[in-house]
Write a structure and sequence with these properties.
Layout (H helix, E strand, L loop, with lengths): L6 E7 L2 H15 L4 E7 L5 H9 L6 E2 L9 H19 L3 E5 L3 H12 L3 E5 L14 H10 L3 E4 L2 H9 L7 E3 L3 H9 L9 H5 L6 E6 L8 H16 L3 E6 L4 H11 L5 E4 L4 H10 L2 E4 L2 H9 L4 E3 L8 H5 L2 E3 L4 H13 L1 H7 L11 H12 L5
Helix pairs in contact: 1-2, 1-7, 1-16, 3-4, 4-5, 9-10, 9-14
The structure holds uridine-diphosphate-N-acetylglucosamine and uridine-5'-diphosphate.
């Protein structure tokens, strides 16, 4: 260990999914002797980040508070880089940890590099192979990989992607995905919601669809197609209830409310805290989503997922048969959803609990690898 002093590890994150997936790592760092855990949030998201910080009782030492309505990618990049430069220079951590593929992720790694600080990349090695889909995440994660010293790959496939790009094997650790650590800590079969509508739904007799959509490349026509397909599904199938916690991005909200507001059996609600959201996923029948994290969580709860995108960087659950790529065309999304509602065999084929993304011990492996990297044998 460096100079017998504590290892200073700074976790940097800014959006809801990063917070959910970094929370178990931060908790593990906090309880580990010999480590000083420091959290810096860019707050690229504000309310949706705070929901997660409150749930996991994480109090960041640094909060850059950069979010602005309608923020562009360049604006987030500039504001985060400027703020992070100052914080990293002041704290001088031994390592910065970033997660995944957001603008905060890439900029966190870049700011660390400019200060010659080591970088650990949590959820490393996911690749779609298309630099514009997901946009800009595919490029964010590749560039972050280039700037990282330790790569925490959730799966063997993710490790292979990194090896193909020339990353040295000894710097890649297969850990599983920390999202499973987070999920296991909040899902409870006896969970009761605080929100009336979620308690009133007849989960036994209705087909309950959980919908989310927010991807930048889906804004506009693809998202209109998605919501029109959902409308078609609800109009045809009178036993269906749709719950859609709508992302706070005003561009998403405008499309969602213009197509789905006021429809019978469609519930547009505010983004849920992680605990009710995970438990809703556990109770619903079908998940329709363009989210990355939800593609990892739902399979472990045995819920069929239709991915509202044209590709995925998470092929493991597709291979296992729990996830299907539905694309962004109205007819195909309608057809696949309708089939899951009305064809029991098809439903049962997809509704298998599988866990290619982890066993709930990813954070433990990450912290162990960091200690070993700095010379502490566990
Ligand atoms: C960002 C990430 C994306 C991730 C997604 C998770 C980038 C480039 N994109 O999406 O990878 O999947 O977060 O949700 O990093 N807003 C609020 N309050 C909030 C959050 C958002 O009002 O708590 C509104 C703001 O008007 C903000 C807008 O939503 O300007 C979009 O936020 P942004 O972080 O830019 O979202 P995305 O790029 O869509
Ligand atoms: N999630 C949540 N509340 C919601 C919707 C999603 O807590 O209302 C959680 C979900 O369980 C997953 C994460 O947020 O862990 C996914 O975030 P998002 O879809 O915003 O981003 P992505 O995973 O696509 O980057």
């Amino acid at each position: 260990m460096i100079n017998n002093s504590k290892l200073k590890i700074m976790s940097i994150f800014g959006t809801r999914p990063e917070a959910i997936k970094m929370a178990p790592v931060v908790k593990k760092l906090e309880e580990t002797d010999g480590i000083e855990s420091i959290v810096c949030v860019t707050a690229q998201h504000r309310e949706m980040l705070d929901q997660v910080l409150n749930l996991f009782d994480i109090r960041p030492q640094y909060d850059l508070n950069i979010m602005k309505p309608g923020q562009t990618l360049s604006e987030i990049t500039c504001r985060a880089l400027k703020g992070l430069e100052k914080v990293i220079r002041e704290v001088q951590p031994h390592m910065v940890l970033v997660h995944g593929d957001t603008t905060t992720t890439f900029v966190g790694a870049l700011a660390a590099f400019y200060n010659k600080t080591k970088v650990g990349h949590v959820e490393a090695g996911l690749r779609s192979g298309n630099m514009y889909s997901p946009y800009p995440e595919e490029v964010n994660r590749s560039l972050t990989g280039r700037l990282s010293h330790l790569h925490f790959a959730p799966t063997e496939g993710n490790k292979n992607n990194l090896l193909r790009e020339g990353v040295r094997e000894e710097n890649i650790i297969i850990t599983g995905n920390t999202v499973i650590d987070a999920l296991l800590s909040v899902v409870d079969d006896n969970y009761k919601f605080d929100i009336d509508i979620l308690n009133e739904i007849d989960y036994k007799n209705k087909k309950v669809i959980l919908l989310t959509s927010h991807r930048r490349e889906n804004l506009g026509k693809p998202m209109e197609n998605i919501f029109c397909a959902v409308k078609d599904v609800v109009e045809k199938n009178k036993n269906v209830e749709v719950i859609f916690p709508v992302h706070l991005n005003p561009k998403v909200r405008e499309i969602a409310y213009s197509i789905l507001d006021g429809l019978n059996r469609v519930h547009l609600i505010e983004p849920l805290d992680y605990e009710p959201f995970a438990n809703l996923m556990n109770k619903c029948d079908i998940v329709l989503t363009d989210s990355g994290g939800i593609q990892e969580e739902a399979p472990s709860l045995g819920k069929p997922v239709l991915v509202l995108r044209t590709e995925t960087e998470r092929p493991e659950a597709v291979k296992a048969g729990t996830v299907k790529i539905a694309g962004v065309e109205r007819e195909n999304i309608f057809k696949l959803t309708d089939e899951l509602i009305n064809n029991k065999d098809e439903y049962d084929k997809m509704a298998n609990a599988i866990n290619p993304y982890g066993d709930g011990k990813a954070s433990e492996r990450i912290v162990k690898a960091i200690r070993e990297y700095f010379g502490e044998r566990n």
